[in-house]
Input
Amino acid sequence: MDMGTFLLVLLIFALRVVDVSLGTLRIVMLLRGMRAVAGILGFFESLTWVLAAVLVIDNLDSPFKVVAFAAGFATGTVLGSTIERWLALGKRILRVVTSVDSPDVAPALRRLGHGVTVVNGEGLQGDVRIAFSVIPRREYPEVLERIRALNPDAFVTAEDIDTPRLERRRSLLRR
Output
């Protein structure tokens, strides 16, 4: 493979990595209600895709270009999801189940600045406390570490959530 072909293969790969990473982030922005940002990302995603596709279609003389196109897609998928995890946009709801006889995690969560709702319940082995707290995704590792340090036996579940924006609340109230 000559240097020109090698550079073209590398360019196709890089364009696809950028294109697919932008696509992954665009979808995340849509899911988080950030439509304007998603639109801007979509513009650059499609522009980048067209450039990569043209380079492959106009140069079908080498299978390396097609492989670079596909490999860029795979790499972009991994990179896009890694960037999304690093950005950690949005919120996560925690459910922390503890025995009533063990340390209560609610005061520690409140000291970290998080609202907490505690409900008493009955578990398999007796009475329990269930603490609910909505936290920024970015803070999840630190909060989980604090919970584990305070009460290693706590049963913790977490999931990403969508919190309604003010506009959505207003439209619901008008109905």
The chain has a mean pLDDT of 91.
